[in-house]
Amino acid sequence: MSALIFLGLRLLAAILLYAFAGWSFYLMWRTLRAQVDFLSSREISPIKLGLVSASGEMHIAEFLQADFFIGRDPDCELLLDDTAVSARHVRLSYHHGHWWAEDRGSKNGTILNDAPLSMPTILANGDTIVCGDTSLDVILPE
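Structure (tokenized):
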């Protein structure tokens, strides 16, 4: 009789263990799903870049995607006709609620507000990015 009770207690313990594990995985999945929904619902803040042409006219380019390149490569989202600019000169990306600028190993380097851009840096409204001989003014929404 005691062997039967012991077997029943072991089965009950196994059922409780599997129920606890299942409930834990369900809670983790639900939390992860809520975080994915929250992150995907955030809107990307648009960025505008003011480019002064050789004739002195200001051209404004607006970008809504979270990641884009500036350079001479035809695949770049902002194509610069400047021989001092590399094919993929600089990358601008939006993450953690900020726009970031990152030099992509360009030959002549990238200048951000009169300082060399040596690491990914957060951009602010009014910053100036210099790629080769081309100057870009950063315009962010307030």
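The longest helix spans residues 2-41. The CA atoms of residues 89 and 105 lie 7 Å apart.
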